[in-house]
Amino acid sequence: MKRFTFNWTMVPILLLVLGFASEVFAQRRFEAEVGPGIEALPYSRVGRSGWQFAKLPTSARMASLGGISTVISKADANGALTNPATISDVENISLSGSSMNWIADITYYSGAVVKNFDQWGVFGLSISSLDYGEMERTINEEQFGPDGETLGRTQPVIDGLGTFSGGDLAVGINYSRRITDRLQIGGTAKYFQETLDNATTGNWAIDIGTYYYTGIKSLRIAMLGQNFGPDTEFTQYDEQIQIPPSQVRMPMVFKLGAAIDLVEQSEDQPHLLTIATEFTHPNDGDEKMHVGAEY
């Protein structure tokens, strides 16, 4: 009869890692008075960046684990889309692909191919695309009264104007290398392009990640800096939509993750139970803690 061992001793270690992460990255909130009895409004970073499709889960596995991305990939090409340091575990070649129907008839595609070149390290090519589909073109017409006087309001008109489309695209070149038997590093250089009708903009960004096997049972930790790049703006934005150009920021985020196998897989025992957690610190929203388990 097959037996498997549950590592209860790892639960306190994992809780310690969780507590350490939340303690290190917790932010103090100071309340300042701007007048008698009036408190300052809390500062919010929500909605301060573009390229939001870069936050979407790149696989069903990532989505089922609550969006955890830094520590779940191992010898998997999908790591090229999440934490490039993890692709060092690929022994030869690995392929990954995903298609997801999003809200409002939006479709999201992602894929990656990774190849190990031995002493040269591991190289990869990744791509993700968001298709908004066809949308009705709309204009606003000024409304007039029966005597031709303006009513001071407009009404949207869509008949006979046709449709337009939009989408996002990101293409990345990945590289990863094993520094020691426990430490792996990786990076990704990405090009972004966003299109809305005839208006188009492009930008570049980089990801830098690490993946570390602690030597404490199967505990591993990972750090990732994602989407670091300059601000950009829509080209022809003022001509197409007749609004002055505005700066679009990259959705930069720092992530710290940890994972451990509470039930470890072996030749005699096929079961595997993994618990993972991830702390995220974005530049356009509040900090979040994700926790997930996989069997």
Written overview of the protein:
This protein has a 10-stranded antiparallel β-sheet with strand order 3-4-5-8-9-10-11-12-13-14, with helices on one face. Strands 1-2 form a two-stranded antiparallel ribbon. The chain has a two-stranded antiparallel sheet with strand order 6-7. It is elongated. It has one domain (10-20, 43-132, 165-294). The protein has 3 helices and 14 strands. It is mostly beta strands and 295 residues long.
Order of helices and strands: HEEHEEEEEEEEEHEEE
Task: Assess the beta-strand content as a share of residues.
Answer: over 45%
Side by side, the strands of the main sheet go: 3-4-5-8-9-10-11-12-13-14
**Helical content class:** under 10%
Summed up, the helix count is: 3
Protein structure class: mainly beta
Regions with pLDDT < 50 over 5+ consecutive residues?
Answer: 1-9, 11-37
Total of domains: 1
Rg computed from alpha carbons, rounded to a whole number of angstroms: 24 Å
Q: pLDDT average, as an integer?
A: 82
- Note the overall shape: elongated
Strand elements, count: 14
The main pleated sheet reads as:
10 strands, antiparallel
End-to-end span in angstroms? 20 Å
